[in-house]
Write a structure and sequence with these properties.
Helix 17 packs antiparallel against helix 18. The chain has 606 residues and is mainly α. Among the domains are: 177 residues, no CATH class; 129 residues, Rossmann fold (3-Layer(aba) Sandwich), CATH 3.40.50. It has a five-stranded mixed β-sheet, covered by helices on one side.
């Protein structure tokens, strides 16, 4: 099915898409206005991203994204990309002379996600138009306005890198259906190189899109230029970004969680083997082309076994067992779909049948083989992306995006049938009922089946506690204390860094693996043992926010541990309570050291 639409749709295509994007931005701004004015980040990564940008603006090297206020005096390296910092830093510099630093940070944290929202709408609409025509693209854009699972990564104050990943997926989709193979391959290679540099989680999509290009080559030798340009641009672009953002010799360091030689060498090997194999073996038949692709794939996989054998179990395999069991297994967004709650599984699965049924309708009604193939390829990508999301749930946003054109076709077909009903009341009911054929409608329809009390969930203890401990006002009194090192649970660490001048022992970021272990041990250990752990880290204060999930987990796991004692107002003698205003939820204790103690943080031992 390819719905080119009428003259009005063709003429006003981009204005309509921009209108939908701006309306979505306006709605999200209104909904999240309190978060904007309060500098209230929903996610710890957003708070830590602002800390990183501040450090960059304060003079920290472009090539250095280490966090020196985590586990001082040693600091901890980070796997994040400086590229994501650039627009945030630029807007802060632009607005600071006009509005002051605090307001400039709020403006930047609100505007950057909204700018990415507009870019997403435009790129996705252009991609959907190449697949199904103007009408499908416009309805897909309308559905995107209500795709909460996607837009949750784009609301104001969402300044971490996940929205960049989704945008790069849309750009890659657009390039995939570019009628000019060389141009399409080059743009796709650049987009995926950027995507990979922002997050190594893009690696499965390299295989997904590269696999599609490979299947095209087997079917048609004319698709060789797309694959060759994709592979070459991806390898060269990744190298240029790695060197330009990490610098030398840091770019030569092998990592499992970020673009590094671990992934770069396999990309280069594949990029070299494709043209070499084509030259030596030839490309005159599907069998020869398949053989070239197989050799390149095996060579790339073999190179990865050599360069990244330490990464075969993933970036979290090296975590300390305590950190793995008490932290990583509770990061639900990074876990497989089958480990999620019923409500989460329903939200994830609901758009799938809509997109697939619509895709089948589009294939069945395609006017020619070329259009049919476009829909087949889109369904291949959507199912592949959904398979990735089955293993890592936070990847579901890309799958949901790729399913929207199919859902649009289903909605258009159902709309025509509903409007064809002659009786007035049945026609109105059928038209109104089309809402359940939208992704958000299907999710809302299935939600009661989960047994979740939505009103109770919206007013949960954890949610109320987060409101108090994720805003600057919640840390005002703590920020006024003499600057020191705070022994705090992992989840509030980024907020402490963002809203106070203090340092923390660890946050929930895996490269600080051993520091994370000490925080978990310290809060779960009995008070006498915890004292040694806390003082070995040279901490000045112990602080936490009652009601947070992490706090409840530690207290339930270790009812005789330090945090359980603090929760029951039984602080040990070596902790002196620091009075906090009743309006602030954070609890703070000063660590008492014996007179004459020489305080020096000890390096971690494996």
């Amino acid at each position: 099915m390819r719905m080119a639409g009428g003259h009005l749709e063709r003429r006003w295509f981009l204005p309509i898409v921009l209108g939908l994007a701006l309306a979505t931005c306006a709605a999200m701004t209104v909904i999240h206005w309190d978060r904007i004015t309060g500098l209230n980040f929903r996610d710890t990564d957003d708070a830590l991203r602002l800390v990183e940008v501040r450090q960059f603006l304060a003079g920290q090297s472009w090539f250095d994204v280490s966090q020196y206020r985590i586990d001082p005096p040693f600091g901890t390296s980070m796997h994040w990309s400086r590229l994501v910092d650039l627009p945030i830093a630029g807007l802060i510099l632009l607005f600071t002379p006009l509005a002051g630093t605090g307001m400039a940070e709020r403006i930047a944290s609100a505007i950057v996600p909204l700018m990415l929202t507009v870019a997403l709408f435009v790129m996705f609409a252009l991609a959907a138009r190449r697949i199904g025509g103007e009408r499908v693209a416009l309805v897909s854009s309308l559905l995107l306005c209500f795709s909460v699972s996607i837009l949750i990564q784009f609301h104001p104050m969402r300044i971490d890198h996940h929205n960049w990943q989704i945008l790069m997926a849309a750009v890659t989709l657009w390039a995939t259906f570019d009628p000019q193979p060389r141009r399409g391959g080059t743009i796709a290679g650049l987009a995926v190189a950027f995507w990979l540099h922002v997050s190594a989680e893009a690696m499965p999509y390299v295989a997904l899109f590269g696999g599609l290009y490979g299947l095209r080559v087997i079917a048609r030798a004319a698709e060789w230029p797309r694959l060759l340009h994709f592979a070459a641009t991806l390898a060269l672009g990744s190298f240029a970004l790695l060197l330009g953002v990490r610098g030398w010799p840091a770019a030569a360091t092998y990592w499992c969680d970020a673009m590094s030689p671990t992934f770069l060498w396999p990309l280069f090997v594949v990029a070299l083997m494709l043209p070499l194999g084509s030259h030596l073996i030839g490309e005159h038949s599907p069998v020869r082309r398949l053989l070239v692709l197989a050799i390149a794939a095996v060579a790339g996989a073999g190179t990865y076994l050599l360069s990244g054998r330490q990464c075969l179990g993933g970036p979290f395999e090296a975590l300390d067992p305590l950190v793995y069991n008490d932290w990583y297994l509770f990061v639900s967004e990074g876990r497989p779909l089958w480990e999620q709650s019923v409500a989460a599984m329903l939200i994830v699965i609901a758009p799938l049948p809509l997109g697939l049924v619509g895709g089948l309708i589009a294939m069945r009604s395609s006017p020619d083989r070329t259009t049919w193939l476009r829909w087949v390829q889109l369904m291949f990508l959507a199912l592949g992306a959904f398979a990735i999301a089955m293993v890592v749930m936070r990847a579901i946003t890309v799958a949901h995006l790729l399913l929207l054109p199919g859902a649009a076709v289903l909605l258009i077909a159902a709309w025509k049938r509903a409007r064809a009903i002659t009786a007035t009341i049945p026609r109105i009911l059928a038209t109104t009922g089309l809402f359940v054929l939208t992704p958000i409608g299907a999710q809302m329809l299935l939600m009661p089946l989960s047994g979740i009390d939505m009103e109770k969930t919206a007013n949960s203890t954890d949610d109320m506690a987060r409101r108090d401990c994720s805003i600057p006002e919640g840390y005002a009194a703590l920020a006024a204390l003499p600057t020191g090192i705070i022994f705090a649970p992992l989840d509030i660490g980024p907020f402490v860094l963002a809203f106070t001048p203090h340092s923390v022992i660890a946050t929930g970021h895996h490269r600080a693996n051993l520091a994370m272990r000490e925080v978990i041990r310290g809060f779960r250990a009995p008070a006498d043992q915890a004292r040694t752990i806390v003082t070995d880290r040279n901490a000045d204060y112990v602080a936490y926010c009652p009601g947070w999930k992490e706090v409840r987990r530690y207290t339930s796991q270790s009812p005789n541990g330090l945090l359980a004692d603090l929760e029951h107002n039984r602080p040990p003698a070596w902790l002196r309570p620091v009075p906090m205003p009743a309006s602030q939820n954070v609890r703070v204790y000063r660590v008492i050291y014996p007179a004459g103690t020489k305080r020096m943080a000890k390096p971690f031992m494996q």
